[in-house]
Amino acid sequence: MREYGEFDFIESVCEMFRSMPSNGFEGIGDDCAVLPIGGDEALVFTSDMLNEGVHFLTDKSTPFQIGYKSLMVNISDVAAMGAKPVATMLSLALPNERFGEWSEEFMSGYKKASKRYGVKLIGGDTVGSKTGVCISVTAIGRAPMANIKRRSAAKVGDVVMVTGRLGASAAGLRDVLADKLTTRNAKFHLMPEARVKEGVWLGERECVHAMADISDGIASDLQHIIEKSKRRAILSEKAIPVACGASFDDALCGGEDYELIFTVDKRQADNLIERFQEQFGRPLYKIGRIVRPNYDCYQIGLESDEGVIYSSAGWGGFSHFGWEG
Amino acid sequence: MREYGEFDFIESVCEMFRSMPSNGFEGIGDDCAVLPIGGDEALVFTSDMLNEGVHFLTDKSTPFQIGYKSLMVNISDVAAMGAKPVATMLSLALPNERFGEWSEEFMSGYKKASKRYGVKLIGGDTVGSKTGVCISVTAIGRAPMANIKRRSAAKVGDVVMVTGRLGASAAGLRDVLADKLTTRNAKFHLMPEARVKEGVWLGERECVHAMADISDGIASDLQHIIEKSKRRAILSEKAIPVACGASFDDALCGGEDYELIFTVDKRQADNLIERFQEQFGRPLYKIGRIVRPNYDCYQIGLESDEGVIYSSAGWGGFSHFGWEG
Questions:
Q1: ipTM of the complex
Q2: Chain A partners of B33 at a C-beta cutoff of 8 Å?
Q3: Contact B120, B114 (CB under 8 A)
Q4: For an interface test with B, which of A91, A104, A110 has the most B Cβ atoms less than 10 Å from its Cβ?
Q5: B299 and B155 within one domain
Q6: B325 has pLDDT over 80
Q7: Which positions in chain B touch A115 (Cβ < 8 Å)?
Q8: Mean pLDDT (whole number) for A277-296
Q9: CATH number of the domain that residue B189 is part of
Q10: Rounded-to-integer distance, Cα A266 and Cα A269, Å
């Protein structure tokens, strides 16, 4: 029997609160919760927790890197909704010896990332810890209602795209664990960059339907999109853009690349790629297409010269939980 | 030399972010950050973290009590602004052995408190932990802009009031540490009740000027009000309502009572007490008055038959930080 774990818990929590009045918020299940605030505007909200020994190791990351990353992983979720991040709240549990130099450097990293994206720190909490460092960030974003991209919006025929090469973070994690902390991929893993401007820009395009950020690997993040949209996706093996130094598995199942994955009306796909290139000087990558589901089976298929294999055959997303540091 | 600690850190963080654009949010310093959203409405935001061994002990509290309290301490901050809590986000770091029975009971307590006050859970995160349980809650409230009560709004001549007797939680903490877990005060400490309806009702009264919740003890929470308002307060020793089983010190310096402390136009004070009694069937307590500062010295004085002693003489608020469990 499988152990009761994180995903069972999340499912049971969603179930517990399903019957409660929504108070105007749209339900759990996207990168962010959405609150329409009138005047065709919406706020979006997301929270993430990073825990010492699970999400970072204080002997492998500098406090500056940990601070920088804590902000980035949260505003990446905001960008994935097509919204502009505007504010964050930061709660920190710190052992006695982390107050002072460590906490100041952590905040320098957090501030650097906040300034880069114009995000204000509006509150939070600081508490003591008998054990390790625990970091919780809540990010708030803002967007016109019409720009909000939901996981449930993928349509049959849509092209699946990503904003950059994949797998660098997983490859970087291997470097970090082998104490190679200064390789290009290690640095990418320790201090990732959220696609904030890209997310806002894609939010403004009507031809972009569903969107998510790649925090757990496309095998997992695209799976959420097709389940919410009740579709299947077929990815083309040779179209997956693998980052330098990464393996194909890193690109498919590795996490924390923080690129965006989204689906686009196929008639507009090439035009979007052109305009994105003009705007950002970088390409978008077409990696597959959305198709009708087989009965109620919302799978991802991977197409190569040898045919199509489906995700139920065993590949899954990267999970923070249980990662042995 | 004093050690660098929590308060130095918070001060340095505020300083770091002071120069950044506000994105429409009002600054750090109240129980909640405030975002006007148009149509004379505002949202308020607050985050708190509770950490095993510092804020709770898993062998002294049931998971149900911990879940209940995690929600309460947050919506208490929302109520202290005069706002109605509408939603929360919950992030949990849990060791492997806490998934299952413990986490389900925790969520039952969290849900019970959420239902009681009509607060929707809209998101969050669940992560593994190599050490103890860490809980982070962000609460969101909503109110007409005109109802928002700020710490900075106390006026000379105002009467200082509290919504209930004080010190029960500090007395209860002593019971808990002595393994008397089922006394009335122990139960109050382990499962406090936020003054949500009272906060919203007081928010609607123009004669109520400044307000805060009593999370760190009135010596500390009233100090924040008078510093922000640039005033002094004189409390009457014999007017402080001490809870049954609590000492005078518990009432003044104990924390976590989660009553509200606020200042009221003195011409309306008696009328407010009457109407509050009608509405809630309980009294308000007048405990002192707001006076002009001595130069730039914003102190609390405690008046008895023997004269007035000032807070600089040495009594301070309850601090979670460094509390030895």
A1: 0.90
A2: 87, 89, 122-123
A3: yes
A4: A91
A5: yes
A6: no
A7: 20
A8: 94
A9: 3.90.650.10
A10: 5
- Whole-model pTM over 0.80: yes
Confidence of residue B296 (pLDDT cuts 50, 70, 90): confident
Residue A58 has pLDDT above 80, yes or no: yes
End-to-end CA distance of chain B: 26
Is A1 inside a domain boundary?
Answer: no
On the question of pLDDT at A321 being above 70, the answer is: no
b/e per residue A175-193 (b: at least 16 CB within 10 A): bbeeeebebebbbbbbbbb
Element (H, E) at A69: helix A63-79
CATH number at residue A76: 3.30.1330.10
Residue type at B234 in one-letter notation: I
Residue A267 DSSP class: G
Give the gap in angstroms from C-alpha B306 to the nearest C-alpha of chain A: 38
The B residues from 62 to 121 touching A (CB cutoff 8 Å) are 86-87, 89-94, 96, 99-100, 103-104, 107, 111, 114-115, 118-121
In this structure, are A241 and A140 located in the same domain?
Answer: no
**The 3-state secondary structure of B66-97, one letter per residue:** HHHHHHHHHHHHHHCCCCEEEEEEEEEEECHH
pLDDT at A294 over 90: no
At B57 the pLDDT is 87
Boundary residue ending a domain (A146, A171, A200): A146
* Domain carrying residue A243: 149-323
